[in-house]
Amino acid sequence: MALAVILFTACQNANKKNSPDQKSGSVALTAAGATFPMPYYNMVFKNYTEKTGILLTYGGIGSGGGIRSLTDKVVDFGATDAFLEDNKMAEMPAPIVHIPTCMGAVVIAYNLPGVDGLQLTNELLEKIFLGEITKWNDAAIKTNNPGVKLPDMAISVVYRSDGSGTTQIFSDFMTKISKKWAEKVGAGKSLNWPVGMGAKGNPGVAGTISQTQGAIGYIGSEYAFAQQIQIAKVQNNAGNYVLPTIESISAAAKGDIPDDTRIMLTNSNDPDSYPISGFTWIILYKEQSYNNRSKEQALATVQFLDWLVSPEAQNQAATVDYAPLPEKAVEKAKAILRTVTYNGEALLK
Amino acid sequence: MNTDKVTRIVLISVSVLILIVAGGMVFALVGGAIPSFSHFGLGFITSATWDPTEGKESYGALPFIAGTLITSLAALVISLPLSFSTALFLGEYFRKSRASKIIGMMVDLLAGIPSIVYGLWGFYVLRPFLVDMGFENQGFGVFTASLILAIMIIPYATSLSNEIIMMVPNDLKEAAYSLGATRLEVITHVTIPAARSGIIAGYILSFGRALGETMAVTMLIGNANIVPTSFTSTGNTMASVIANQFGEADGLKLSSLIAIGLLLFLITGIVNAIGKLIIKKMA
């Protein structure tokens, strides 16, 4: 017993030594959360460290983990793919703000040798993912894809077995376009799927689809764009069939955005928009003076976020297959950052 | 203080430490599982619905309990003839031959391969093979998962049975030979009865390993939260659902996952207890 106590205290002492010392002058920022924007964050975080000497670390532990870490106040800011609903906001120990950082989409990937440019209406998506259409040569798919030779093959639906912001965006879109889906399945990070099979993470789903003829599933755009995988055109609210591209994803945010930026951009009205697109957010406390954080630390946090939405960082997004924020969203994000305070005083002017 | 005393103190404190760790684990699991059990009651075990959608949350562990037991039992049945024959080959028929040394080494090597590597091999080699052979439509499901589990537990069952078979006293076998018994008769009438309890213990340990196996199963079972209806049906296991879903889980869902962990702990405990009982009865 005594041995155990000694061991534990020894560990704790070691931890204390390793943690960045706030008084030493060099500021280090820690963040954790969503895995979806991780390649983008990794890149811009590194660039910012090279530029300013401020050390930034990001842990890709999932949106839920990001929210939990901010609640426990163990990070300077968290990251999430789904904004916090009012009731979840109220559960946080102090008011928080959402800063959108970039945009991504959920692509519908499939595996049908020789069938390129599959076009899917909202109704087809509903029926395929609810298991009402089970064969690729179903008349409904045929009439919507004239001239395409569809094989007599079973449809295997593949979904995420782990909780994910990708599933959240996909199911939010499905809920908007299909009453039946809204009633039977609904929206969320993980769902009670009527048909199909689960695979872990974007790599799991992409791997399963590319290994299974007749498979169809949804994948985060940042991952899908880097893969050789067949991608379907999806019908948007204006009736156009749109492929997910950096431009069509950005177009989804052309409409009105609320001042707090908490909006799901799926099924946008813009005629050029890809309909299964969304923001990803960074969340932080509105009042930055907590847990003995120094003003220096607080200032470094908001200055970094201000840079993250600036053109310098946003222009890098496309290089790792994310869509940059449209001008209007950047303005809103900058305005929100100017409401963040330290002991009641705004940190940025 | 004499060395005897020191040794005793060290041994006692280490044993107590293990007791504390095991006790702490049970305590944490039970504590974490209470919200789920108090919300769903015994229905948690009998309900087949796993619906994490906000507003109509409902969690039942039946699909995972069924998936775990079916895949593990199937794996045990598939592995039995293979591992038992290999053990006899190594420990009896070709004992001390070069062939048995090489095969013994391969078996040990198989035992040391990490689970994720089995998963990768299953995903990229075994599954497409099963699809090509026409056994399955898309290759994910209970059968593929059981097959990979069987391959994973073969080395365990083999080396444990092999050790036991080697320990059967030569005097017994020689006596049987001197009475004119054939080799097969010696195996069926002397070796197997003498090694029976040890062999069974080996299989129970292997079964225990199959119960808790996570990564390889996750990659092949299809992760559909339903009670499997056939061998080609997709399903999910207790270990696999925890590994998949704990990351984004909170509240009632997290508690339900912990409750599944507790149930898995209990099932493994019961399996071990049954194993001990069988050994006692047969020895």
Task: Write a compact overview of the structure shown.
With 349 residues, chain A is an alpha/beta fold. Chain A has helices at residues 2-18, 38-52, 63-71, 86-91, 122-130, 139-144, 165-177, 179-184, 201-211, 221-224, 246-251, 295-308, 311-314, 327-337, and strands spanning 28-33, 55-60, 77-80, 96-110, 119-120, 156-160, 197-199, 215-220, 230-231, 233-235, 241-242, 277-285, 341-342, 345-346. Chain B is mainly α and 283 residues long.
Could you walk me through the main structural features you see in this protein, from its secondary elements to its overall organization?
The complex is a heterodimer of chains A (349) and B (283). With 349 residues, chain A is α/β, with parallel strands linked by helices. Chain A has 2 domains: 5-104 and 278-346, 3-Layer(aba) Sandwich (D-Maltodextrin-Binding Protein, domain 2); 106-277, 3-Layer(aba) Sandwich (D-Maltodextrin-Binding Protein, domain 2), CATH 3.40.190. Chain A has helices at residues 2-18, 38-52, 63-71, 86-91, 122-130, 139-144, 165-177, 179-184, 201-211, 221-224, 246-251, 295-308, 311-314, 327-337; strands at residues 28-33, 55-60, 77-80, 96-110, 119-120, 156-160, 197-199, 215-220, 230-231, 233-235, 241-242, 277-285, 341-342, 345-346. In chain A, strands 1, 2, 3, 4, 6, 7, 8, 9 and 12 form a 9-stranded mixed sheet that branches. Chain A has a 3-stranded mixed sheet with strand order 5-10-11. In chain A, strands 13-14 form a two-stranded antiparallel sheet. With 283 residues, chain B is mainly alpha-helical. Chain B has 2 domains: 3-51; 63-282, Orthogonal Bundle (MetI-like fold). Chain B has helices at residues 3-40, 43-46, 62-93, 98-112, 115-132, 142-167, 170-178, 183-212, 215-221, 238-245, 251-282, and strands at 50-51, 58-59. The chains are: A alpha/beta (349), B mainly alpha (283). The A-B interface holds A 1-4, 61-65, 68, 154, 156, 161-164, 185-193, 196-200, 204, 207-208, 211-212, 214-215 and B 13, 16-17, 20, 49-56, 123-124, 127-128, 137-140, 218-219, 222-225, 234, 236, 243-245, 247-250.
